[in-house]
UniProtKB/TrEMBL annotation, chain A:
The keyword Membrane applies. The lineage of its organism: Bacteria, Pseudomonadati, Pseudomonadota, Betaproteobacteria, Rhodocyclales. This is PepSY domain-containing protein. It comes from the Bacteria. PANTHER family: IRON-REGULATED INNER MEMBRANE PROTEIN-RELATED, PEPSY DOMAIN-CONTAINING PROTEIN. The chain crosses the membrane at residues 12-36, 145-172, 193-217, 354-376, 396-418, 434-450, 462-488, 494-512. Keywords: Membrane, Transmembrane, Transmembrane helix. InterPro entries: PepSY-ass_TM (IPR005625).
TrEMBL record, chain B:
This is DUF3325 domain-containing protein. InterPro entries: DUF3325. The keyword Transmembrane applies. The chain crosses the membrane at residues 6-24, 44-64, 70-87, 94-111. The keyword Membrane applies. It holds the Pfam family DUF3325. It comes from the Bacteria. Keywords: Membrane, Transmembrane, Transmembrane helix.
Length: 535, 112
């Protein structure tokens, strides 16, 4: 078959785009919500109602570390690692994590920072909060397999961006063009405008997303030169200390408080995490992680980090200090770290976060319009891509489209509702919330498969709009806190979450009205629409 | 420069710049002002458009520094463009008037 370059790119864009668009939409939508993971966690943990958070002092941190250490010595005197998360504004509990050895299960408990006793389930609203969206975004809650799937989709996104530019015939003449009310033509215009106008953001976010996991995606060098030992490779790359192998000589971890205080003094930051590697062994090392300060050197993109200090746990000897916002390991690593910072928006404060949020939503809308355009085109003039099975394949694509776009949006807002409605004393509450999120998403797929295509879209959009608009109401009913009170006390994070939900509810409501008005005049409009090239 | 004020300035500079480039095209000149623009007018609009985009980049880098400034500029440029493109077909005259009415309307909160 003879094809021009543009025709083959068009084929690539259509089919490569279609198979990956569902997963890319999920990545874009959850990643965009993840820009505001802290405000979302703040809302979900009802932090707005706590009038004042106790100031953490060197004394309170020391007491917390001592309590955590006592607890960990009892639970796991020998462990691959202990990690102590010190209380802060967002998380008042003292958290301890440990794993006895590689391959053993990862353990996690929440302690009272004053008494060191385990917190009873139900005493606080246990939730992953906005973190759920971030994990969904980069690994689909599927660990390394998820990271690979997301990586493949990201490469597909880059392919779709480049092929999309090739396919777009009139990128400059149509730069400012959007023609509404013309059926397929309008979907194509919308898809083009959303894509072209946010192109710098789309390239940046997609490429930097890929670069974050370079060591996972391109392991050949590390496998060949370092026998797959990533620790050894990174120690060399960052000019850091060599990894410390287990010596298998028993040695109790001494009091961690003096090391924590020395670490804080060395990096000039409060400690956020105190980690003990190889606890109980002679090779034990203590690493102090500083608290992230978004305002420090806020005009710099290079090396946004919070500093670490590493000590030999037994002798107390200083092994390594890295001050906050510094880079080690040469220009290549500095470039990679800068790209990480670009991807994570760890700079610029709220104005830049909002720019990322809106650009990300435009990107998600671009993906959604692309997926919808595929079906709009074929509803009008069915192709014959799958022979006699074509109508059935179209039906499946239509159902997945609905569930992947409207259904995921419904599941995301349902996650907020689940957070408020799930009883507090459920065991593993945070995990249950996420399971229920996936349950809702699966239900939308079943719904989309059972209902006629248009009905499925309308009903799922209506449910999403309703849940968005009434989010402040459910918060008022379940917690007694409401939007007005949040505004009065100047709690922008709580109010921001609810106002954004209302804004999304209004957008979905407008989309619904549009859909219903269109259904009346569709036949006329599509008959009048000109034949469209490309897509 | 206050970052919120910078957002406001850069956004409208970008919007104005894009509006200039947009009106320099026959299709959109007809849509907004009726009739095709003459050659001198097209040149002026283009020149003004590109200059405003350049001014926006400088303002943005004044506010955020040359590392983050361009990132913020690209973001605001995209937003201004999306706003313009999706406003044009529904309210073409308003899309043009926005560059005159918009800045003073949004300005007061900065001086309260």
């Amino acid at each position: 078959m003879k094809q021009t370059f543009r025709q083959s790119m068009s084929w690539l864009h259509t089919w490569g785009g279609l198979w990956f668009t569902w997963i890319l939409f999920a990545i874009f939508l959850t990643g965009t919500l993840g820009v505001f993971d802290d405000p979302i966690s703040h809302w979900m943990r009802e932090k707005g109602k706590v009038s004042e958070t106790p100031q953490t002092t060197a004394e309170s941190r020391s007491r917390a570390v001592t309590l955590a250490q006592d607890y960990l010595v009892q639970q796991a005197p020998r462990a691959e690692f202990w990690s102590i998360g010190l209380p802060d504004d967002e998380e008042p509990a003292l958290r301890v994590f440990w794993r006895e050895a590689e391959g053993k299960p990862f353990q996690q408990r929440r302690l009272d920072p004053l008494s060191g006793t385990e917190m009873k389930p139900g005493s606080t609203r246990q939730t992953e909060g906005g973190h759920h969206f971030v994990h969904m975004h980069f690994e689909l809650h599927a660990g390394t397999a998820g990271i690979w799937i997301v990586g493949a989709a990201t490469v597909a996104m880059l392919v779709a961006l480049v092929s999309g530019i090739v396919v777009h015939k009139k990128i400059f003449t149509d730069f400012f063009t959007f023609r509404p009310g013309k059926g397929q033509r309008s979907w194509l215009d919308g898809h083009n405008a959303l894509g072209v106008l946010t192109l710098p953001f789309l390239f940046m976010i997609t490429y930097t997303g890929l670069i974050i996991f370079w060591a996972t995606y391109m392991p050949a060098g590390i496998l060949a030169r370092y026998q797959g030992n990533e620790d050894a490779f990174f120690a060399k790359l960052t000019e850091g200390p060599a990894p410390r192998p287990l010596q298998r000589i028993d040695a109790a971890v001494p009091d961690l408080v003096p090391l924590m205080l020395r670490g804080e003094a060395a990096i000039e930051r409060e400690a956020r995490f105190v980690v003990v590697e190889h606890a109980g062994d002679r090779s034990a090392a203590v690493r102090i992680f500083g608290r992230f300060d978004p305002d420090a050197e806020a005009d710099s993109l290079v090396g946004r980090n919070s500093g670490t200090a590493l000590f030999d746990a037994i002798t107390g000897e200083t092994i390594d200090i890295q001050k906050p916002n510094t880079v080690r390991g040469g220009n290549v690593l500095a470039t990679q770290r800068t790209m990480n910072a670009l991807h994570f928006v760890r700079f610029g404060g709220y104005p830049v976060k909002w720019l990322y949020f809106l650009s990300g939503m435009a990107g998600a809308a671009m993906l959604a319009t692309g997926a919808i355009l595929f079906m709009v085109k074929r509803r009008k003039k069915a192709g014959d891509e799958f022979g006699s099975a074509t109508p059935r394949v179209y039906r499946v694509i239509e159902a997945i489209n609905t569930a992947a776009i409207a259904g995921l949006m419904l599941a995301c807002i349902a996650y907020f509702w689940i957070n408020r409605l799930l009883p507090l004393d459920v065991t593993d509450r945070a995990t249950r919330e996420i399971q229920l999120f996936f349950a809702v998403w699966l239900l939308t797929l079943a719904h989309a498969a059972l209902r006629p295509a248009r009905q499925a879209w309308v009903e799922q959009l209506a449910a999403t709009a309703l849940l968005c608009l009434t989010l402040p109401l459910i918060n008022l009913i379940t917690t007694g806190d409401w939007l007005f009170a949040a505004l009065v006390r100047g709690d922008g994070e709580t109010a921001g979450v609810e106002l954004s939900a209302i804004a999304f509810g209004l957008i979905f409501g407008a989309a619904l009205r549009h859909l219903q008005r269109r259904s009346a005049s569709e036949v006329r409009a599509t008959a009048a629409a000109p034949i469209v090239e490309g897509a | 420069m206050d970052k919120h004020f910078a957002v406001y300035l850069v956004f409208f500079a970008c919007y104005g710049g894009l509006l200039g480039l947009c009106l320099a095209m026959n299709r959109h000149h007809v849509q907004v002002l009726h009739g095709n623009p003459g050659r001198p007018r097209r040149l002026v609009l283009r020149l003004a458009g590109w200059s405003l985009l350049g001014v926006a980049l400088c303002l943005s880098s004044q506010a955020w520094g040359w590392a983050i400034g361009p990132v913020a500029w690209f973001g605001l440029l995209s937003l201004a463009a999306l706003g313009l493109v999706f406003l044009l077909p529904y309210a073409p005259r308003f899309a043009a008037w926005l560059i005159v009415v918009g800045p003073p309307l949004v300005l007061p909160p900065f001086f309260l």
